[in-house]
Amino acid sequence: MSTLLVSTVGGRSVDAPGEARFVSTDPARLDQVVAEVALADADTFVAACRSARRAQRDWADVPAPVRGRVIANLGRLVEANFEALAALVTREVGKTAAEARGEVQEIVDTCDFFLGEGRRMYGQTVPSEMPDKQLFTFRVPVGVAAIITAGNFPVAVPSWYLVPALLCGNAVVWKPAEYSAACADAFAQLIRRAGVPDGVFDVVYADGATTYAGLERALDAGLVDKIGFTGSSEVGARIGELAGRHLQSACLELGGKNPMIVTEDADLDLAVHGALFAGFGTAGQRCTSLGTLIVHDSVLADFTARLEEAVRRAPIGDPTDPSVLYGPLMTERFAARFEDYLGWVEDHHRVPGPTGRISAASPREGFVGDPENGLFYHPVLVHGVRPEDKIFQQETFGPLVGVTGYTTLDEAIELADAPGYGLSAAIYTTDPRKAFTFRRRTRAGMVSVNNSTSGAEAHLPFGGNGKSGNGSRQSGVWVLDQFTRWQSMNWDYSGRLQRAQMDTLEITPDLEYRLSQ
Question: Which of 257, 281, 341, 500 has its Cβ near the most Cβ atoms within 10 Å?
Answer without folding.
Answer: 257
